[in-house]
Amino acid sequence: MPNDMANDNSLLKAFSMATPLAGAPDWFDAVTAAGAARFETLGLPTNRTEAWKYTSLRGLSSLAFTAPSADGARVEIPRDSVADIKGIEIVLVNGRLDMDRSALENLPIGLAITPLAEAVEFGNGAVKHALQDESATAGLPLAALSTAGITGGVLIEVAKDADIAKPIHIISIGAAGDEPVAYAPRTVVWIGNRAKATLVESHVGVGEGSYFSNSVTHVTVEDEAVFHHYKLQNEARSAYHVAMTHVTCGENVIYDNFALSCGGKLARNEIRGKLDGSEILYAVNGVYMAAANQHLDNTTFIEHAKPNSQSREIYKGVLDENGRGVFQGKILVQRPAQKTDGYQMNRALLLSRKAEIDSKPELEIYADDVKCSHGATVGELDDDQLFYLKARGITEHDARNMLIEAYLRDALEEIRVDAVAQAFGVKITDWLAERAKREDAAR
Amino acid sequence: MALLEIKNLHASLEEEGKEILKGIDLVIQPGEVHAIMGPNGSGKSTLSYVLAGRDGYEVTEGEVTFDGKDLLELEANERANEGVFLAFQYPVEIPGVPGMTFLREALNSKRKYNGQDELDAMQFLKLVREKAKSLEMGDDMLKRAVNVGFSGGEKKRNEILQMAVLEPTLCVLDETDSGLDIDALRIVADGVNALRSENRGMLLITHYQRLLDYIQPDFVHVMAAGKIQQSGGKELALELEKNGYADFTGKAA
């Protein structure tokens, strides 16, 4: 439809204008041009696109996004929204790297953090490989759009055998001025053989204005490495957040992802993992908490390409008021991937009659000797548990809160780094406190 | 004043509209221990739920006065804070809620309700450890989530621990003896007996006479088909043990 086309073009224009990496090498210009061309071909997805059946981007079209200004608004880091982690901080404002507030020097031995622009300029192999990877945008319109206008980011490299104890913490701040802004952060992570590292991402916003964060992250975990990858999506409530994470794991890798989503007006967290080795332990877990007018989408794709690997996936959601959740999880087991062990579960707790969850688990299996299971549950709080608490003198209100908190906190057990589990636990407590405030106000 | 006075209580299952309690009359004075015995399906557990204020039951007729107050007007949590305690036949497991957090919340709810200061974590822990000792419950048990990983006997002991901490004035024990071996039964019974006092009333609901060997009731009532069919002293329990409930179920039909 012509109208859609016009909107697609204005989005593309906003993103294309955004790139501060103009003047970069030819290969990079070719990457952005290919991204733009691909987005033009694919168009902004509608509900007719299978992968976007439950998540509508219609709201995006009504906003005239502009590219963030080049001077990079100087904004305070909203510490209350950010995960409270003592880490090595990298700060992005509207998708641009804030060099002054990012730890780029005096890093632990074995860790290198390079501004993306610099890595592009020098033609860093990992960055080139990631950006030129056609499969990172194939059939993925939003990733293509993001590629058309990369605003900035970093390359994180952990040398082989390095054990980086301190978490690396990317803080991405959206700060719209009078006009809505759109930006496209890009992170490239490379974890060398036998290395160990933790990355935490905090996606937050300041101010009331609408913004659109459309990020892509590439993660390569080489043989026998351990990578903990945690994300807090706590964007401003008027924000759009679309994130694509591509993960490739080698032999004997432990990759452990946990996403806590509670912010944004519309957010989609998509993780596509390729288990390109044996004896991999791949985990993608998360918690999502939606309240009024929020739409939170978790979409995952796990490809088992080699035998004897294990994938685990547990998402838990709480949907209040007219909050909406979407879970789409697909496990693909290729023919050689015998003895694959895959487990997937989405549990949603509906706290209101107006809340909604759409769950779509999918298995596609070509190997004949595998153990894969998936499931989805939707429920309300357990009446027996509620009565038990009330029969001990606890009010209905407090009893409900205790049960919701227990349900959510249980998911944090999946996080393998205690400090992160604690920091994320605080966000759950905050969310419940806010909910309690709403309830008190309504009474 | 009677501690509990039940008058002509009729109650139905809300969903099915089926009448379960068909006119119960019962008076418990402070310090008394009453036992209600009866076959399965006689309405014993329904009575305990109606007293504790569980949703899903509709009282169609009659009244219940507790300590001079209209009990049926109160929410379940208010009843608990007024001093009614139901020891569950099947204590509920609540994963993710630490047992101690739960019990402290319960105790402080009651204290707050009655205008008392709340206990801090240290004061509370001291109190619980003391009460838990006589029930042979160690710290490892106290640390777990509510009833999670507990055996049947441990769950029942946990109910009695809660009762000891909350110090209710009316204890309703629903089939507390079920699923207990003889040693566990003794521990639980000792716990209950320790709580007998002149201002506390107890209502033991049981299918078997066995519990009554350990906790001696002042009165025994036989319940069948939603009604108390006969009342007497503890000798009535022995009679039932010998003759079964056939007389009463026959009479009800």
Explain how this protein is built.
The complex is a heterodimer of chains A (443) and B (253). Chain A has 443 residues and is α/β, with parallel strands linked by helices. Chain A has helices spanning 2-18, 26-42, 58-61, 116-121, 125-132, 141-148, 383-390, 396-412, 418-442; strands at 88-93, 96-97, 111-115, 152-158, 168-175, 181-183, 185-191, 196-206, 211-221, 226-234, 240-249, 254-261, 266-275, 281-290, 295-304, 310-319, 324-333, 341-350, 356-365, 371-379. In chain A, β1 and β2 form a beta hairpin. The termini of chain A are far apart. Chain B has helices spanning 44-52, 76-82, 99-113, 121-134, 139-143, 152-166, 182-194, 211-214, 235-243, 246-252, and strands spanning 4-13, 19-28, 33-37, 57-66, 69-70, 84-87, 94-98, 145-146, 170-174, 201-206, 219-224, 227-232. The longest helix of chain B is centred in the middle third of the chain and has 15 residues, at 99-113. The mean pLDDT of chain B is 93. Chains A and B meet through α7 and α8 of A and α2, β7, α3 and β8 of B.
Descriptive tags:
heterodimer, A: about 450 residues, alpha/beta, ten-stranded mixed beta sheet, B: about 250 residues, six-stranded mixed beta sheet, four-stranded antiparallel beta sheet, 10 helices, globular
Characterize the main sheet of chain B. 6 strands, mixed
Report the average pLDDT across residues of chain A: 93
| Structural class estimated from helices and strands of chain B | alpha/beta
- What is Rg of chain B? 18 Å
Number of strands of chain A: 20
Radius of gyration of chain A: 21 Å
Compressed to H and E, one letter per element, the order of chain A equals HHHEEEHHHEEEEEEEEEEEEEEEEEHHH
Biggest chain-to-chain interface with counts: A-B, 22 and 30 residues
Within the largest sheet of chain A, what's the order of strands? 2-1-5-8-10-12-14-16-18-20
Q: Tell me the distance between the termini of chain A.
A: 47 Å
Q: How many H/I helices of chain A?
A: 9
Order of helix and strand elements from N to C terminus of chain B:
EEEHEEHEEHHHEHEHEHEEHH
Based on the structure, what is the oligomeric state of the protein chains?
Answer: heterodimer
Q: Briefly note the structural class of the backbone of chain A.
A: alpha/beta
- Straight-line N-to-C gap of chain B: 36 Å
Strand order of the largest sheet of chain B: 6-9-10-3-11-12
